């Protein structure tokens, strides 16, 4: 496993190769200050300061060289402008010409992430180390990178090795490492206390039995924050079975759980002064003679009855019970993450999590956090005008909308029914996956919305060092 703290280090004047960052606006002026040999090299390579284009600049000696790389704005670096260099440069130490990479530290580390657990031959790669004068930024950036890497690792792991029991084991590791209290509810206690989680997972094999996993951490007197994650370890669709193409990526349906576990560890590891309650509703939506059926009516923890219109709309069921539990402790904030609907991806594609919130200030804070961390979100309308699409003839509500329209909105409205009316709440309908690689963002499991949520939590609750 990569130790990300090895990849960014304080600049103490160590020998290192220089990275020059240029943009189209300033390139010509920068070029005038380079040596004739460097200008000739760039001309021969027909170098243009576009995209992530880079070139090696020769020095006076054979082993003396530096790097030039194009960015959108050399005066305001994004998280990703060094990500490609972190992937492709030879091992060794580097520093920016001005010594201040800022939030590009994150992309440098992210570009060196690898998931090779299942490869019989693993690529041996030396570290690419970035030196920085921004010493205070190192520890926070490393903590965020570890959280993102955890999400990627959990989502990338096949369902056979990442069932409900393994999610519990990961929660146990996190709680044990940081002094949290772990509680796991399963079996008959789950059936009676969290009937929708039990119903969704009861068809799975015994070693993949459903459970509610909870971590409580922090001082009682601190503000209460609840993080809730959908942990469907694999989603066959149940009796409303998915086609093969739709089932191929369903190992990632526990992506919401991966996000909240990583976010919870980030909260604990950095000592954010909150009373944290992390809840993961873990189950496998499998098929057997005991599977829940279309037309069944389930009673929820909150007491609401739910008619099953589609067994493939199971994520909102397990979240409903977990959200109800979260609300019982009267938190000041509830945030949930879930790989909930294909409709969100139709609307926003794979990169943008759909954000729903019942509080405008909370939504604004999350959007601002996404902008600050280059982890964008898009707010969607939690519009009560579609609530009638969840009406059913024989129960309090249905789990599947009666229309093909507004599928992501009706799913969010379903969840809203299980959140206390006076509690600020945000729901992330995230993909947790990248279908194609980008610099610093490999194909596969992805943390989408995690850093935005973390920025919001820091802004709201971390007053340490502030006047």
TrEMBL record:
**Membrane-spanning residues where?**
none
Q: Does the keyword Transmembrane helix apply?
A: no
Record-linked InterPro entries: Leucine_aapep/pepB, Macro_dom-like, Peptidase_M17_C, Peptidase_M17_N_1
Q: Which GO terms describe its cellular component?
A: cytoplasm
Q: Which GO molecular function entries does the Swiss-Prot or TrEMBL record give?
A: manganese ion binding; metalloaminopeptidase activity
Q: What is its EC number?
A: 3.4.11.1
Q: Which GO terms describe its biological process?
A: proteolysis
What residues does the Cytosol aminopeptidase domain cover?
310-317
Enumerate the PANTHER family for this protein: LEUCINE AMINOPEPTIDASE-RELATED, PEPTIDASE B
Q: Which family does it belong to?
A: Belongs to the peptidase M17 family.
- Name used for this protein in its record: Leucyl aminopeptidase
Keyword Mitochondrion in annotation: no
**Pfam families this protein is in?**
Peptidase_M17, Peptidase_M17_N_1
Keywords tagged on the record: Aminopeptidase, Hydrolase, Manganese, Protease
């Amino acid at each position: 496993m990569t130790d990300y703290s090895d990849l960014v280090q304080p600049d103490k004047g160590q020998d290192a190769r220089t990275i020059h960052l240029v943009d189209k606006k300033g390139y010509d002026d920068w070029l005038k200050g380079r040596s004739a040999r460097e200008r000739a090299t760039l001309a021969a390579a027909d170098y243009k300061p576009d995209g992530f284009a880079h070139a090696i600049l020769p020095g006076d000696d054979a082993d003396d060289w530096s790097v030039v790389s194009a960015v959108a704005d050399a005066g305001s670096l994004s998280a990703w402008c060094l990500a490609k260099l972190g992937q492709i440069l030879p091992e060794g130490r580097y520093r920016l010409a001005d010594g201040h990479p800022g939030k590009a530290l994150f992309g440098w580390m992210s570009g060196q992430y690898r998931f090779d657990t299942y490869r019989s031959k693993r690529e041996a790669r030396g570290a690419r180390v970035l030196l920085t004068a921004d010493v205070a930024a190192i520890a926070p950036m490393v903590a965020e990178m570890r959280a993102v890497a955890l999400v990627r690792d959990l989502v990338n792991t096949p369902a056979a090795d990442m069932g409900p029991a393994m999610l519990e084991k990961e929660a146990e590791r996190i709680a044990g490492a940081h002094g949290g209290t772990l509680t796991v509810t399963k079996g008959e206690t789950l059936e009676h206390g969290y009937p929708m989680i039990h119903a969704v997972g009861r068809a799975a094999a015994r070693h993949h039995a459903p459970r509610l996993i909870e971590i409580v951490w922090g001082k009682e007197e601190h503000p209460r924050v609840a993080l809730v994650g959908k942990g469907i370890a694999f989603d066959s669709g149940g009796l409303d079975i998915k086609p093969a193409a739709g089932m191929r990526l369903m190992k990632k349906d526990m992506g919401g759980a991966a996000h909240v576990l990583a976010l919870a560890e980030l909260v604990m590891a950095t000592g954010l002064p909150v009373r944290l309650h992390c809840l993961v509703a873990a189950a496998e939506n499998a098929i057997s003679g005991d599977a829940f059926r279309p037309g069944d009516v389930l009673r929820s923890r909150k007491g609401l009855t739910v008619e099953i219109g589609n067994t493939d709309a199971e994520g909102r069921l397990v979240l409903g019970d977990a959200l109800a539990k979260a609300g019982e402790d009267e938190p000041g904030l509830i945030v949930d993450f879930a790989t909930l609907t294909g409709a969100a991806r139709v609307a926003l594609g794979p990169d943008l999590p759909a954000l729903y919130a019942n509080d405008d200030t909370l939504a604004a804070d999350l959007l601002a956090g996404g902008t600050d961390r280059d982890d964008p979100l898009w707010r969607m309308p939690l519009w009560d005008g579609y609530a009638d699409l969840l009406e059913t003839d024989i129960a309090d509500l249905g789990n599947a909308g009666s229309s093909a329209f507004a599928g992501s909105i009706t799913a969010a409205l379903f969840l809203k029914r299980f959140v206390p009316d006076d509690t600020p709440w945000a729901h992330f309908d995230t993909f947790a996956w990248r279908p194609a690689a980008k610099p610093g963002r490999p194909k596969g499991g992805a943390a989408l919305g995690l850093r935005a949520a973390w920025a919001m939590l820091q802004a709201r609750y971390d007053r340490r060092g502030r006047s």
